[in-house]
TrEMBL record:
It comes from the Archaea. This is Hsp20/alpha crystallin family protein. The lineage of its organism: Archaea, Methanobacteriati, Methanobacteriota, Stenosarchaea group, Halobacteria. Pfam families: DUF7127 (PF23444). It comes from Halorubrum saccharovorum. InterPro entries: DUF7127.
């Protein structure tokens, strides 16, 4: 397993990327409720929108390849894909 940890430049979310022989996982700790977060993937990019009382905050991060699944739980976005 290969592990990388970075901070995104947009909203300061903590990003972690794990690479395995057969796939990868990217996790971002947003600290927001799941009902306030929407995630869309386009090619090798994940687009995250957090709805708030003010205006929505949008952030993007690169993925190793196209995503197979996306989930949001306890303020953490998890994106998974295959190699």
């Amino acid at each position: 397993m290969n592990h990388q940890q970075t901070r995104s430049s947009g909203d300061g979310a903590l990003l972690r990327r794990y690479e395995y022989e057969d796939g990868w996982v990217v996790a971002a700790d947003l600290g927001a409720d799941a009902e306030n977060v929407s995630v869309d993937t386009v090619g090798e990019t994940a687009i995250v929108v957090i709805e708030s009382d003010d205006e929505p905050v949008e952030s993007e991060f690169e993925l190793p390849s196209e995503a197979d699944s996306v989930s949001v739980e306890n303020g953490v976005v998890t994106v998974e894909g295959q190699r």
